[in-house]
Write a structure and sequence with these properties.
Helices cover about 35% and strands about 15% of the residues. By secondary structure, it is α/β, with parallel strands linked by helices. The chain has a domain of about 140 residues: Glutaredoxin (3-Layer(aba) Sandwich), CATH 3.40.30. It is globular.
């Protein structure tokens, strides 16, 4: 998959880039430094709330967060939308996750999370590749159709801010990282690293827990 960002994806063993972002709830900011020396962090960098895959990921991580916490790992999810838009969404869909807002994708860029290049080949690949990443669809559908069908299942009416986020962000990819208590990246998972068929897929709880349990104690 051809991408457009210049910074290469961060790799295990590198120092995790610091960030301090507006919080969606709780204390006013979420900073990586808050956790340094205290606990490892599972960090998920997501898109705006227009993304049905991201909305599902946040809902699922609400349950996974407790499993990670039991292993001594804190969870931070970054959503790429203005804080006010995120606060409105989570007012009606509350979560225990620690959420930060990063509408301009600064954290994605710092971690080298790529944005796919919109080429005729890429768009043809979206149309030809069928996915069913959450298992909710009766049969796999082309990527854009799958996203539209999941949004229909949600009955989610996006806001003008969601529309603006989508137009600005598409086709930005997503990623997850495990950062140890010293601020070193120990594991990274980049969406689409193996191709378009991975769009919308999320690491399983079993995979995450195996990675966490392999951390040096």
């Amino acid at each position: 998959m051809t991408t457009t960002e210049s910074r290469p994806p961060i790799t295990p063993g590198e120092v995790a880039p610091d960030f301090s972002l507006p919080a969606v709830d709780g204390p006013p900011t979420v900073a990586l430094a808050d956790y340094r020396g205290r606990s490892p962090v599972f960090l998920a960098l997501l898109l705006g709330l227009w993304c049905p895959f991201c909305r599902r990921y946040i809902a699922r991580m609400g349950a996974t967060e407790a499993k990670l916490k039991a292993e001594g790992v804190e969870t931070v999810c970054v959503v790429a939308t203005p804080p006010e838009n995120a606060k409105l969404y989570f007012k009606f869909r509350p979560t225990k996750l620690r959420l930060a807002a990063d509408p301009h994708l600064a954290t994605h860029h710092a971690y080298g999370v790529q944005r796919a290049a919109v080429t005729p080949e890429f768009m043809a690949g979206l149309a030809a590749t069928k996915i069913n990443p959450t298992g909710e669809l009766p049969t796999p559908l082309p990527v854009m159709e799958a996203a539209a069908k999941l949004a229909e299942i949600d009955g989610y009416a996006g806001t003008p801010v969601d529309q603006a986020d989508m137009e600005r962000q598409f086709p930005q990819l997503k990623a997850q990282f495990l950062i140890d208590r010293d601020g070193i990246v120990r594991w990274a998972n980049f969406e689409g690293a193996k191709g378009i068929s991975e769009v919308g897929q999320m690491p399983s709880d079993e995979e995450l827990l195996a990675v966490v349990r392999a951390l040096p104690r």
